[in-house]
C-alpha cells in the first residue's frame, strides 16, 4: 500500500500597511506565501503549486498577488511612499 497526497504550508513573509480594497481603511496587511507539496508516506517531496496573498487585518479580505508584487512588498524597500513594514 502506497500512501500519497498533498499538504499545504503557509509562510508569513511580511506585514505591511496598505489601503484595503474591501473596507478602504489604511491598515496592516499580512503578505503570505502558500506552498502545496506532494507527499509520499507523509514526507513532503516537492512543491506542486505556490500562491501569494495579502490579507487585511481589519476586515479579513484576501487579495491574490503575483510573486513579483509579494517580493516587492516583503523586500527590504517595503512599500514605496512611506508605508511601514515589520518582520
Primary descriptors:
mainly beta, about 60% strand, about 90 residues, 1 helix
Radius of gyration computed on alpha carbons: 16 Å
User: Quick one: biggest sheet?
Assistant: 5 strands, antiparallel
* Number of discrete helical segments: 1
Strand-residue proportion: over 45%
Placed side by side, the strands forming the largest sheet appear as 4-3-2-1-5
Count of distinct strands: 5
- Indicate the overall shape: elongated
Counting copies of identical and different chains, the oligomeric state is: single chain
- Give me the strand/helix succession: EEEEHE
Taking all residues together, what is the mean pLDDT? 86
Spans of 5+ residues with little confidence (pLDDT < 50)? 80-87
Explain what you see:
This protein starts with a strand and ends with a strand. The protein is elongated and about 55 Å long. It has one helix at residues 67-74, and strands spanning 4-19, 26-40, 43-56, 62-65, 85-86. It is built from one helix and five strands; from the N terminus they run ββββαβ. Strand 2 and strand 3 form a beta hairpin. Strands 4-3-2-1-5 form a five-stranded antiparallel beta sheet, with helices on one face. The longest helix has 8 residues, at 67-74. It has 87 residues and is mainly beta.
Short description:
The protein is mainly beta. The chain has one helix at residues 67-74; strands spanning 4-19, 26-40, 43-56, 62-65, 85-86.
Amino acid at each position: 500500500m502506497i500512501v500519497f497526497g498533498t499538504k499545504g504550508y503557509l509562510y508569513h513573509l511580511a506585514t505591511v500597511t496598505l489601503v484595503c480594497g474591501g473596507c478602504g481603511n489604511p491598515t496592516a496587511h499580512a503578505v503570505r506565501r502558500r506552498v502545496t507539496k506532494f507527499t509520499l508516506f507523509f514526507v513532503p517531496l516537492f512543491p506542486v503549486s505556490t500562491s501569494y496573498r495579502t490579507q487585511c487585518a481589519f476586515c479579513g479580505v484576501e487579495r491574490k498577488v503575483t510573486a513579483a508584487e509579494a517580493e516587492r512588498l516583503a523586500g527590504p524597500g517595503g512599500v514605496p511612499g512611506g508605508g511601514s513594514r515589520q518582520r
